[in-house]
Amino acid sequence: AVNDPVTIKHHAERWWISLADSDLMLWVKGLATGRDMNVELFEPDVSPLAIQGPKSNELMAKIFGDEICDLRFFRHSKVAFNGTEFTVSRSGFSVQGGFEIY
């Protein structure tokens, strides 16, 4: 079983798959090998931070500005905070939805 991955397409040749467990990485490696794909698979040093629940919009607006709340569900954007660029995706592990910061 594949356990709730979130896929982010940064551009045509760069995708991130946020894994809940390692089984998906094994599946992707098997798919790439089995289909003779010319791809590079690696696990970057990224620690996602999930901001979820009924106050997630309010908190994210305080950090990144009100426009972050316009981000559509299952979309992502590059945003800056204190001079550092982050990728923020809009999805949710809760009924209210939320964000993931990478």
Search tags:
two-stranded antiparallel sheet; 2 helices; four-stranded antiparallel β-sheet; single chain; 6 strands; 21% helix; alpha+beta; 102 residues; elongated
Topology:
Layout: E1 6-11, E2 14-18, H1 23-34, E3 49-52, H2 56-64, E4 76-81, E5 84-91, E6 98-101
Antiparallel strand pairs: 1-2, 3-6, 4-5, 5-6
Care to describe what's here?
The protein is of the alpha+beta class and 102 residues long. It has 2 domains: 1-45; 46-102, no CATH class. Helices cover 21% and strands 32% of the residues. The protein has 2 helices and 6 strands. The strands form 2 sheets. It has a 4-stranded antiparallel sheet with strand order 3-6-5-4, with helices on one face. Strands 1-2 form a two-stranded antiparallel sheet. Strand 5 (84-91) and strand 6 form a beta hairpin. The mean pLDDT is 85.
